[in-house]
Sequence to fold (222 residues):
Amino acid sequence: MITISHLTKTFTSSAEPVTAVNDVSFSVADGTFASIVGMSGSGKSTLLSLLGGLDQPTSGTITVGDQVISTESDRALIDYRRSIVGFVFQGFNLIPNMSAIENVMLPMEFANVPKAERRTRAADLLNQVGLTGEKQDRRPAKLSGGEQQRVAIARALANDPSVILADEPTGNLDSKTGKVIVDLLKSLTADGTTVIVVTHDRSLAAKTDVTFELEDGKLLNA
Ligand SMILES: Nc1ncnc2c1ncn2[C@@H]1O[C@H](COP(=O)(O)OP(=O)(O)O)[C@@H](O)[C@H]1O
Ligand SMILES: [Mg+2]
Fold:
């Protein structure tokens, strides 16, 4: 279970402070496919960063399982990002001079998975997301957008996370490929993995179990 309670994030870097996330509370049960929607600037990415432990809230709490991540030390947050969450970014963020399989192996290296296991596990994950055969040895530039997103999803799964966070996972894909990726993300919830996607794509949101709508940092359907 993920529980967010009275979560607020105010950025004070500019002359005018911006409250990007404003007193947001919700819960998501394990194995849920959830979406966060809202217009550009409504706070979606900020909320995802807070959930992923990439940024600290100004106030409020985030609990993931039995861990209150909003009050964790930097060191504990590094572990959290490495072992509990997997990130899928818009634009894939793959390392261009590494093959698909090497991209998937990389997070395992950071998590000290023995070298012999990394390649086998990465190949298994790529097979699971539908990138098979010699394509696993191609660099990202030699793969289509949909294939690159499959690699990004396999990489997010590398350390067997309990939560997958995806920011606009279909943003760079044509609608047909986008549907395939959405179905793939949904399939990941079958074993209890929670998948939270940020999107402005209503057809994607319609396929999720629950949708949270933000407007100016506030949750509309509270
Ligand atoms: N690092 C930051 N510093 C200052 N303001 C920020 C920062 N990140 C986001 N914002 C502001 O917070 C608001 C929400 O941004 P964001 O979460 O990126 O929205 P969305 O993802 O819904 O487009 C915007 O007004 C944005 O300009
Ligand atoms: Mg955004």
